[in-house]
Amino acid sequence: MKVLKFGGTSVGSAKNIQQVASILSDYQQNGQRVAVVVSAMSGITNKLIEVGERAASGDETYKSLLKDIESTHLTCIRELIEVRRQSKTIAFVKLLLNDLEDILRGIFLLKELSLRSLDILQSFGERLSSFIIAEYLTQIGVEAEQLDARKVVRTNAVFGGAKVDFVTTNSAITKHFGETDKMQIVTGFVASSESGETTTLGRGGSDYSAAIFGAALNVKEIEIWTDVDGVMTTDPRVVPTAFSLQQLSYEEAMEMSHFGAKVIYPPTLQPAIKKNIPLRIRNTFNPSFPGTLVTSTSGQEDWPVKGISSIKDISLITLSGSGLIGVPGVSSRLFGALARGGVSMILITQASSEHTITFAVAPTDSITSKKIIEEEFFNEMASGKVNPVEVEDNLSILAIIGENMKERPGVAAKLFSALGKNGVSIAAIAQGSSELNVSVVIEKKHLHKSLNALHEIFFLSDMAELNVFMLGLGLIGGTLLNQMRDQAEYLLTERNLRLNVVGAANSKKMVFSDKGFDISLEKDAILADGEESNAALFVEKMIEMNLPNSVFVDCTPGESAVKLYEKILLSSISITTPNKIANSSSLDYYLKCQAAAKRRGVKFLYETNVGAGLPVIGPLQDLRRSGDKIIKIEGILSGTLSYLFNTFAAGMKFSELVKQAKEMGYTEPDPRDDLGGVDVARKILILAREAGYHLEPSDVTVDPILPQACLDAPTVDDFFVELENANGLFEKKRAEAELDGKALRIVATLDEEGKATVALEAVDSAHPFYGLVGSDNMVVFKSRRYFNEPLVIRGPGAGAEVTAAGVFAEIITIGNFLIN
Ligand SMILES: NC(=O)C1=CN([C@@H]2O[C@H](COP(=O)(O)OP(=O)(O)OC[C@H]3O[C@@H](n4cnc5c(N)ncnc54)[C@H](OP(=O)(O)O)[C@@H]3O)[C@@H](O)[C@H]2O)C=CC1
Ligand SMILES: N[C@@H](CC=O)C(=O)O
Ligand code: NA
């Protein structure tokens, strides 16, 4: 035999009752005997309390509320019961409703609503629902009858939450079930005292009824039918990837329910748990789903964490002071006073220094708690031995729960590391000695992000999700998007990494979606419905979205986003960017960004700042980290200039070559940044800073190679016109060098004295820079370890594909850092 319990939503309407009946009829057809415990139709218990309160306060509107209750049940009957049987059912229900009306009239006249009257009032909910369900079952051929639990469940006469007399109850239940074969549709929640007065079983009363009947009848399983697919790993409204658990232990279920997962309320299931009766949580609206089994063992031994639960709103209260140290009885005074004041504590922590005791309460209890403590420790506070009570609001608790965490190292480390990497700081920590639960108190605004990040770490280790915000979808950003699109399938299937583009913008439009855009679309289609773009607003929105595992990708050329890097990093969002400005403007800002990344433990990556996709900055950082000392750096650092001077030959027009370089994606959006030496100056400055030299932009000397008129041209088009006028000048320099058997190169140098220069040099055929081709960059590091033979890095140093690929690689690096 089994006991099945259906909650208020399951029996909340005619349609739902039909669904319940079809489940029950299947049981009958399979020859499986069941006892069915039902709740009142959803919302009815609250209405019964309210109608009583209105009547007691002399408010005549109780009558309309009563009508409302009546019509809910009559409508349900009319929808369920066929016409020829309706009159009998309606007659019974009317009788009950008349009783209810009489009782309410009495309450109205007396203006008094005792706990005893409240119990009677509330009992009508279950008495009505169980009768209607039994009638409907009979109609569809299931042999069923209502069992008013007041006949068998005996309690003391403490109203509003009576104590069950198990000896009498158990024998009455077994006797009753021994005398009938009909399916019993039992009123949950209600009972009666020895003298026959109606009592109720308190919070979670129908679950309690199910446990009482299950234990008395020694059933093999109790099924709790609700409206969700069993117990889920976490709240699916917050974490869309939450899924149903196959099995958990009674203790785990207890912990989950303590911290918010309201599917079952295990304390009420104690009678069944004591007898080791398995519970199964099932979904009335998805009956083929097997549900979650709750037994004495946790199951799924390889899962250290079974669930993540949370309480969204709590306040943290701290009592501190030197007067607490080594003084016995402080906690007993504190907790005793709070208990007397009716305050229930959700979590308590005390460091071994004994200097502070911190505990969490519901925000509605925080003012009361403060007052109680101030009264209890009045003298100590007056003498300064105890500090004023601290109350912190806008906090949440989240807890990871699992029996298998016991003695398994690394679980808490994972919890803290995931929170840390997502910029969530922890206000308090508690772990019970049972090691079943590690609870942390965090800022409420971070709860959503934290639950998602932790769920990913603990439950989706075979699938990680990175939330990417892309500012700038021009040459580099657009190419990057194409590369991400082409590689998405591979990353998902081979690397278990999903790249979610959740924000995107160019200079005109910006769009956001916390679920991520379909990146199989072209960038214009993604941006199509965007709002007006603004870098500051983009960043603001990104910070406000507060998504876990976020990365900001800046593929714009200007300063508008750069100014916000420090703020972004301080908001615990990692950055990758090909934009060189942050690292090559003031030293102060460069250091601030580095410090912000370090402080928040996030990544700030910019390998493509020098040599595009070539590994230059990474190796340089590795040399320094491993204790090497950079002595000198020399380099061809501009892909554009390299291409120009590698290709420039007799009979060619220099201005035409510049146009080609632009078309090939080598130049900056304004090619004068390349030709004027600004871009190279930025790069040598960045290398110098990475090598440990604290240089300002003004410390880099640049030999001008462009005539002033080119630099002064108001637009890029005007510049090209002016450049044509300078063709002769460039041809002259080229021819002179050729005569000497040399080639022209723009060489950037950081010398032994830490002086940075950019100069046009004519190099001979023996020089390593002589033989470069295409957009080749070459960087030569002379260091203490690479002294006689310097470390040389060479390869294409500009272009959309190689640059975007460098940024892409960094996105994945950030993903691996955040998620592992
Ligand atoms: N080309 C190369 O080989 C390399 C380039 N880089 C760097 O890559 C970066 C991008 O260069 P590139 O792609 O060529 O430049 P583009 O001009 O082609 O693209 C820039 C993108 O940024 C957008 N944009 C500009 N300002 C804003 C703003 N304020 N808010 C939002 N979006 C904005 C533009 O919008 P819209 O489309 O509306 O104009 C465009 O989508 C530069 O910093 C460059 O130095 C680094 C290494 C190598
Ligand atoms: N415009 C730059 C691109 C890379 O930083 C160059 O030409 O090197
Ligand atoms: Na690079």
Instruction: Find the count of extended strands (DSSP E, 2+ residues).
Output: 30
Number of domains: 4
Largest sheet: spatial strand order: 3-5-2-1-8-10-11-9
The name CATH uses for the topology of the largest domain is: Carbamate kinase
What is the top-level CATH class of the largest domain?
A: Alpha Beta
Distance between the termini: 48 Å
Gyration radius over CA: 37 Å
Beta-strand residue fraction:
15-25%
The named CATH superfamily of the largest domain: Acetylglutamate kinase-like
Q: In words, what does this structure look like?
A:
It catalyses: L-homoserine + NAD(+) = L-aspartate 4-semialdehyde + NADH + H(+); L-homoserine + NADP(+) = L-aspartate 4-semialdehyde + NADPH + H(+); L-aspartate + ATP = 4-phospho-L-aspartate + ADP. This protein has 820 residues and is α/β, with parallel strands linked by helices. The protein folds into four domains: 2-227, Carbamate kinase; 307-459, VC0802-like, CATH 3.30.2130; 465-611 and 807-819, NAD(P)-binding Rossmann-like Domain (Rossmann fold); 624-798, 2-Layer Sandwich (Dihydrodipicolinate Reductase, domain 2), CATH 3.30.360. It is built from 29 helices and 30 strands. The strands form five sheets. Strands 3-5-2-1-8-10-11-9 form an eight-stranded mixed beta sheet, with helices on both faces. The chain has a seven-stranded mixed beta sheet with strand order 21-20-19-18-22-23-24. Helix 15 (475-495) links the parallel strand 18 (464-471) and strand 19 (497-505). The structure holds NADPH dihydro-nicotinamide-adenine-dinucleotide phosphate (NDP), the ligand N[C@@H](CC=O)C(=O)O and sodium ion. The site of NADPH dihydro-nicotinamide-adenine-dinucleotide phosphate has 31 residues, from helix 15. The site of the ligand N[C@@H](CC=O)C(=O)O has 11 residues, from helix 22.
